[in-house]
Specification:
Elements (H helix, E strand, L loop, with lengths): L1 E8 L6 H15 L3 E8 L7 H11 L7 E6 L10 E7 L19 H20 L2 E4 L2 H11 L4 E2 L17 E5 L8 H8 L7 E5 L5 H14 L5 E4 L5 H10 L2 E4 L6 H11 L4 E4 L5 H4 L6 E4 L3 H13 L1 H18 L3 H9 L1
Parallel strand pairs: 1-2, 1-3, 3-4, 4-5, 5-6, 7-8, 7-10, 8-9, 10-11, 11-12
Length: about 350
């Protein structure tokens, strides 16, 4: 079968979506399919340009393929008679109401127009798809709530080679794009309140100076020399595996971001417990407090307490990591299952 794998892309940089698209392409080719991937460039800034992005995607045509598999916005807006949406990421700014703590789209006439345009485009894309599956529980709930569309959850299988890791470093690892709503600044503030020498490594691509502002300001105000590191540039699989293997624990403190489930499972696969917040969405249901990680209030002082706890009681932290690894294995789907579902 001739298949095109489509994903959105922010120019200059490599995101997790690029990794998933590459892995999916490889797995399709291994199974005898003629597959190519296409990255659709777009600016994630939620302004009027977003409407032009939607219109441009709607005008694109992918010829000479039997099926397209779309992973995220704006790729899934592209029409095709046999379109499969494996929804791994939408334009979440449009789904956050204006009264959230970190609204990316203002509650103005223009802001409401942008939000309505994105929601309408998403609804049209979902309606015309032959199949819709989601990568997380949060995304499944989102399309059910906003679009009345049901979908099964099809999680991304492991991309980075992982294994039970008994190595315990002295740092907590927070991976993921740097955005205001992802609240990496809370972890920086927490480090300044920790009673132990636990360190923090933030590994995340900077989407814009505006979005990274709170993190930069927190580092300026609270930065403790030698205890906070921000890796803002893309890094390769070996570096990523090394970081995950040697971390003390993982952390995801975003406000209700569906990507949290994905990062939690990746941390679990390396037998690392996860630190998260009670308002972080589906990840707070995935992490069992006191067993596979810590679920705490979204406050720096509370995060500091659990980071100290993870550092001081290494044996308990290691045991929690083993429970996390077992939990990940119970939820894991393999590439055979994923490919079979997407090309059925």
């Amino acid at each position: 079968m001739k298949i095109a794998v489509l994903s959105g892309s922010i120019p200059i940089g490599r995101s997790r979506m690029d990794e998933v698209a590459s892995a999916l392409l490889r797995e399709l080719a291994v199974r005898g399919h003629d597959a190519e991937s296409f990255r659709i460039p777009f600016d994630p800034t939620p302004d009027l340009g977003m409407i032009h992005t939607i219109l441009a995607a709607r005008r694109l045509r992918v010829a000479n393929v039997d099926r397209i598999i779309c992973l995220d916005f704006p790729a899934y807006c592209i029409p095709h008679p046999n379109k499969i949406i494996w929804l791994l990421q939408n334009l979440r700014q449009a789904y956050d109401s204006a009264d959230t703590p970190y609204p990316a789209i203002p509650d103005t006439k223009v802001g409401r127009s942008i939000r309505e345009s994105v929601l309408r485009a998403d609804g049209d894309a979902l309606a015309e798809a032959s199949l819709v599956v989601t990568g997380t529980l949060d995304l499944r709930s989102s399309i059910s709530k906003f679009h009345g569309r049901s979908a099964e959850v099809l999680r991304v299988p492991p991309i980075v080679r992982s294994a039970i890791s008994i190595e315990r470093g002295s740092f907590v690892l927070c991976s993921g794009p740097v955005r205001r709503i992802n609240r990496q600044h809370l972890l920086v503030e927490a480090i300044n309140q920790c009673q132990t020498p636990v360190r923090l490594i933030i590994s995340g691509f900077e989407e814009s100076r505006a979005e990274s502002g709170p993190l930069r300001e927190a580092i300026r105000r609270n930065g403790v020399p030698g205890r906070i590191e921000w890796i803002s540039e893309p890094y390769d699989e070996l570096e990523r595996t090394t970081l995950m293997s040697s971390a003390l624990a993982g952390a995801w403190v975003s406000h209700a971001d569906p990507q949290g489930e994905t990062f939690a499972l990746e941390s679990f696969r390396f037998s690392k417990p996860m630190i998260t917040c009670s308002d972080s969405g589906g990840i707070a249901e995935l992490v069992v407090n006191g067993a596979s990680g810590w679920v705490t209030a979204p406050a720096s002082i509370e995060l500091a307490k659990v980071m100290d706890e993870a550092y001081m009681d290494r044996e308990r932290t290691a045991n929690m990591g083993l429970q996390a690894h077992a939990h990940a294995q119970s939820l894991e789907q393999n590439w055979d299952e994923v490919i079979e579902r997407l090309i059925r």
